[in-house]
Amino acid sequence: MTLRGRLTMAFLVVVLGPVLLGAFFVGTTLSAVDRGRATERLGLAAAGVRTSVDALCQQLRAAADAVALVADPAARSRAADQVVGRGLAAAVVIADATGRRSYATAGGPAGPWQDCAGVPAGPVGALAVQVRLRDPAGADLGAVAAAQPVDRAFVARLAAVTGVEVTLLDDPGRATTENQGVRAAVLAAAREVTGDRVAGTGDGRYVRRVGPSSGQPLPLVLSVRGDRPPGLYGALVAAVALAALLAVLAAGRLARVTTRPLIELAGAVDRVAHGDLTARVPVRSRDEIGRLAGAFNRMTRETGSYVAALTSSRDQLRNHLVVLGDTLASTHDLQRILRVILDSALAGTGARAGAVLLLDGHGVLVGQCVEGLTGRWPTDDPADPATLRVPVGAGVVGAVAATGEPLRGRWAPPDAPTGEPSCETYVAVPFAAPGVADPRGADRPGHPPADSDPTAGPPSAALGVLALYDRLGGHEFDDDDLVTLRTFAGHAAVAVENVRVHEEAQRLSLTDPLTGLWNYRYLRESIRREVERANRFGRMLSVLALDLDRFKEVNDTWGHAAGDAVLVEFARRVRGVIREVDLAFRHGGEEFVVLLPETDARGATIVAERIGAVVRDQPVSVDGHDAEPLRVPVTVSIGIAVYPDHAGGGQQVLDAADDALYAAKAAGRDGHRLAPAPDPVRTQEIPVAATTVSPPDGLPRAGAAEQAGAAPGGASSGPQPPRQSRGR
Question: What is the pTM of this model?
Answer without folding.
Answer: 0.38
